[in-house]
Amino acid sequence: DEELLKSIQATVVRVEGDCEQLSYVTGSLQDDHRQHQKDIEALFRSLEGLEKKADKEDLLLLKVDKAALGSKVSCAHFDASMESLEERLRELLRRVSGQEQRWQEAQQRFSDALDSKLDRLELGPFQKQLEDTWAKIIKDLKDELSVEIDDAAGIKQQLLVPYKCLSCDRHLNMQVPG
């Protein structure tokens, strides 16, 4: 019985030592857990601060983007306008070159007809007149292509110069109707 009692006492002493050791480890784990919990809370607070700051920066960037967007032209609209302009310029160039080719043909026909009917002394002034006329026509055509058209809402004065737009009161260069 004494041996059994001694073995039970030894076991109780071991269990008490193990309990003390477990108590120490548990206390250490609780301290570590509290420290980790504080660190996690600090991380959450800093994360919330960063989210607020990021939201403010995103909002500011969004406002800047919206403001810049108003002054931008869409690529599709710009490309379509440029293609339309390029097509019109090609058409005008084709017309001018067609006119020039017809002028050259007409000049050649006149030259051939005049060579057979008139002498060289009479051809000089006529040729000079034709060339001057052709140069004037080409210049007028080019001037007409480069003229900017004023589209106004209306004009204040019907027949007196200078004309003014009814909506914005700017001066206009217009021909008198009729």
UniProtKB/TrEMBL annotation:
Q: List the Pfam families.
A: DUF4795
Q: Which domain of life is it from?
A: Eukaryota
Q: From the record, what ranges are coiled-coil?
A: 33-109
* Stored InterPro entries: DUF4795
Q: Which UniProt keywords are present, listed alphabetically? A: Coiled coil
Residues forming the DUF4795 domain are 1-177
What is the recorded name of this protein?
A: QRIC2 protein
Query: What organism is listed for this UniProt entry?
Result: Cnemophilus loriae
The organism that produces this protein has a lineage beginning with: Eukaryota, Metazoa, Chordata, Craniata, Vertebrata
Protein's gene? Qrich2_0
